[in-house]
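Notes to self after the call with IL:
- keep both proteins in one doc
- input above output, always
- annotate only the second one for now

Protein 1:
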Amino acid sequence: MNIKPFVNGNYTTVDAYNAVKQIKHKIIAHGGAVVLMDERPIGLITANDIITNNYNLVIDCLSEKPKVSPRDTVPQVLQMMQRSGSDTLAVYEDDLLIGTIYKNDMTSHLIESIELSNVNIQDVAHDLRTPIANMMGIINILEDSLEGSDDQELISSAKAAYVNASNLINELLKPRQSTEQSDQGETIEIVSLLKECIADIQISVLNKSIEMEVLLPSEEIFSFGQAQTVRRAIDNILTNALKFTREQGKICIKASPEDGYCLVSISDNGIGIPDKFKPFLFQRYTTAKRAGTSGEQTTGMGLHITKNICEQYGIELDFKSTESEGTTFYLRFALADKGKITYI
């Protein structure tokens, strides 16, 4: 499969003579930016360039990266990214820049393809443990050499990404259970799970100056599922709320027990979902996918994965949305006795 479906044509740009301090958060939020000089692209700058090159101007922080073609295959581009140490690359066709490509978009597609085709994902997860562990080693080295508050914020974000990736790998390495056992899951604590999900997005919330309202009960609430898997479903909804809420917008997360269930709602006052897209929202590679309010890209798989997880563990999933006003997703968990608790 070539990378054409994953090329982001709505890329972020910065001027070559911008001060790094002024555009640092923009680059972090978008995973990279095309650098322009006299309105012409001269390269691509990433967060890693900023960390490893301590200069004041964007042009001085640029590093050489391979150019890729839309006809290159996903494995080829992933190898280029590994060799260059960059998770974002520029895509050219006939020497003309047509967009950027992100590692996360391709790896998300690969993970979903493996799951749906019942390939033995444990072998893949095992092979990923070493590069994931190496990534943490690099983060620790950078942490020892950087002292600024902005740099420490970057390091904290990288550590959170490592923890999530490591948890996913560990989950994939668990022995496979029968369908009946998998569907039943374990007893999970919803309030602590939500708090962990909220903590993971704090930097993204700050980058877009979004107001976050969190209304959670003080007592523990128990339901059924598998903590890391259910967390993935919630993360997908929160990520969408962030993508489709404008800067200085608002996201509200609530949870409350009612009649043997716990109702979790995640609402935003973002751009909403047009009526024509609603019937296709949970389809795999849905045609309802759109760029976020700051140009964030989507593969159209997140809500499809969320729906599958909810169906697996008997979580009722619904949504309401009005275009230009916002969207609310509802997750209805059946309550469980305390039993065997799984915390994040």
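Protein 2 (the one to annotate):
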Amino acid sequence: MRRRVVTTLIPQPDPEPAYPEYEDVRREARRRKGPFVNLADTDRWTEVARRRGGDWCAAVLGKGFPGAYALSTVDGWMLIVADERGLNPPLPARIVEDRRHAQEAKELREKQVRERQEREMRRWQAALAAAGVEMTVRENTRHTGVGGSLRHAVPKEELVSGQSRKHLADRGLCETPDRANPLHLGEPVNAPANCRRCLAYMEKVRTLDAPAPPTAAERKLLQVIASGVVFTMTHARCAPTIRVTTEPSRGRAGALGRSVDAAVKRLQAKGWTAKDAERSATQTGHSGHRWRLTEAGTAALEG
């Protein structure tokens, strides 16, 4: 299969000069140019372009100035003729309009960057306040991307998240303790962390002496206890048992409710639940000792 290369030539826009002497200057340039290009001529219009500047050259040519070495012979001689006549024409309207649009686009991009940085800072401050631990932000000095180096959250002391995930001090929050090639982090910077994994762990980390958060099953049981339907019930043929009185079961004394004795006692061992000393009525017409959430249990459920 033969490969075909297609070259597309984009037509250049016609000159739009903003001064009346343009045609006269161009005719003079055509008259004075020789049949061949020589270094003396190119040096002359290169010196004029360097001395006058790009805007003046664009105004004389009536179009964008690509540089002295990219000019045709006629365009180069136009610069020489205009310089000899002392012309100072204004920029073409199209160039002025293009620059205005470019400036507006630049200001819009800068505004979007500022808004994004403000959003990142607000999110970082909220995450830092919710975590309640000291953090610094450090950039990855080994790798970078289009948006710059990735900024990681770095704890000042060892932390844990979930049930057993460890986060070592002075290491990125997203790093595992046994990582073979740790991140290369620079000095602390005054900027918000933008590593997504670090920000995700910010919602989960805690100090080593803080209790572990409830599991999904424990959280569900805490919600049931908070609704006020968990009681220690007494039956003539059974030992006192902790039950969810609104959920009957098929076991012994199941009419009093589903047994959650072991699960509630585990929550009690963590300090999340406590039993009332006085008996109270249940929703099913019986009576028993109601279980309630402690302050620690309420905090665990809300956290």
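Annotation: The chain has three domains: 22-85, 114-207, 216-302. The two ends are 65 Å apart (CA to CA).
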